[in-house]
Design goal:
Layout: E1 7-11, H1 16-28, E2 33-40, E3 43-51, E4 67-68, H2 73-86, H3 96-99, H4 113-117, H5 138-146, H6 164-177, H7 181-193, E5 197-199, H8 230-239, H9 245-251, H10 263-267, E6 275-277, H11 279-290, E7 294-295, E8 298-299, H12 303-309, E9 314-317, E10 325-328, E11 333-334, E12 348-351, E13 357-361, E14 366-372, H13 383-395
Antiparallel strand pairs: 1-3, 2-3, 2-14, 4-6, 5-6, 7-8, 9-10, 11-12, 12-13, 13-14
Length: 396
């Protein structure tokens, strides 16, 4: 690389530890390029970015660089669903089939919307092998899900719906609102708050989007003989076989290694996995959520709607994630031993494969976003984001 990575932006001196972690990660190569942002009681106190877009280039990460955030997108979908509930248009205890009649097939007529949102519906994967093209064909994917028999009795366990979550909840949003989830999100969340986050990225924005580098899960640390914990190794072995429930959850339709960097991926709406945004956008939207749903006079949710959305719905070993102990609200991941967001037990948000993360701490009034372009090992966030969160709360 022809130049040393530099960090740009603003950081209150109180939180200098966050800047130091970003600088260290960029210098060591743990991060290639990244953005990090925190809001505190509605004020942006950290807004940093730095590093590079490519390993062999001096092209620097810019203030408005976008990057794919994988499952961090799910938190944005959860906000959309909560808005429809608040407006009286969606009942989480009503059968999904009330809004989406075709969904009733194969014994699914009684599954409530609630179980889609908290990963209890038993639909983490489609058994029938699907071509990659189905990933970009909304009607084909949702039709396959409507025809799918649950992998377990709905409501008896939870298992992470890694890709299907977005199409399941997104189709309910579409049936109720008449808009795709990407359009609904833009009109009801992104534009009112003025945040740079997109579910279905317009072609005109592709030029300022960084490629993602590395594998979806694991990276070099997952190679045979490494120090990866055995449960994670077992999960990764199963994930490699798309005929299994776990493998299908992540790779049916098959996702080619570099699909995330293609125009087809960017412009499609894959609401569980292809939101593109900045750390600043995540910190702002979660900053609003941390303040009861309102920021700068703009309200996206009532506080009671947020409280309802972050009540624990499912807790314990995850049937898809190798038995990892998880906690889910209505679309949000909740603070747990494997996702130590903050000292507050009420903290919530969503991470993405590779290390991106957005979160809110309503007790401390904190919103946070971290958006790296180099994949880190981990299923629920990565070391970089959690280190920055710890440094911030240690200084708070």
């Amino acid at each position: 690389m022809s130049t040393e990575p530099r960090v740009h932006g603003h950081c209150d001196t109180r939180f200098e530890g966050v800047r130091q972690i970003l600088e260290k990660n960029l210098a060591s190569g743990a991060d290639l390029g990244a953005g990090v942002s925190f809001t505190l009681h509605g004020e942006t106190v950290v807004d940093l970015w730095g590093g590079f877009l490519e390993p062999d280039s001096s092209d620097e990460w810019q203030r408005d660089t976008l990057v794919n955030l994988y499952s961090t997108t799910k938190g944005m979908v959860a906000i959309c669903a909560a808005q429809l509930v608040e407006r009286g248009l969606l009942d989480v205890d009503a059968p999904v089939a009330e809004y989406w009649p075709e969904f009733a097939a194969r014994g699914k007529q009684q599954i409530p919307v609630r179980q889609l949102l908290c990963h209890q519906a038993g639909l983490p994967a489609v058994r029938e092998p699907l071509e990659t093209s189905v990933l970009y064909d909304w009607e084909a994917f949702t039709s396959a899900l409507a025809a799918q028999e649950p992998w377990w009795e709905p409501g008896t366990r939870h298992g992470y719906h890694a890709i299907t979550f977005g199409h399941l909840v997104g189709e309910v949003i579409r049936r109720v609102s008449g808009q795709t989830v990407g359009h609904f999100f833009r009109q009801n969340v992104a534009e009112p708050l003025g945040i740079d986050f997109h579910i279905g990225l317009p072609d005109k924005e592709h030029a300022r989007t960084s490629r993602l580098h590395g594998r979806l899960i694991g990276g070099d640390g997952a190679k045979s003989g490494s120090s990866v914990p055995e449960p994670l190794k077992a999960f990764m072995r199963e994930m490699a076989d798309p005929s299994t429930m776990t493998g299908g959850a992540f790779n049916n339709p098959r996702i080619p290694p570099d699909a995330v960097n293609t125009p087809e991926w960017r412009r499609a709406e894959i609401p569980a996995a292809n939101g593109h945004g900045t750390a600043r956008a995540l910190a702002r939207v979660y900053g609003a959520m941390a303040l009861g749903g309102e920021l700068d006079g703009i309200r996206i949710l009532e506080s009671k709607s947020i409280e309802r959305a972050i009540e624990t719905q499912a807790e314990g070993p995850d049937a898809v994630l190798g038995g990892m102990p998880m906690r889910f609200g209505l679309g949000f991941m909740l603070r747990s031993a494997v996702m130590p967001l903050s000292p507050s037990k009420r903290a919530f948000g969503h991470p993405g494969a590779g290390g991106s993360i957005g979160m809110a701490d309503p007790d401390a009034g904190v919103g946070f976003g971290y958006t790296p372009n180099k994949m880190q090992m981990g299923l629920v966030g990565g070391a970089g984001g959690f280190a920055m969160l710890k440094a911030f709360f240690d200084a708070l």
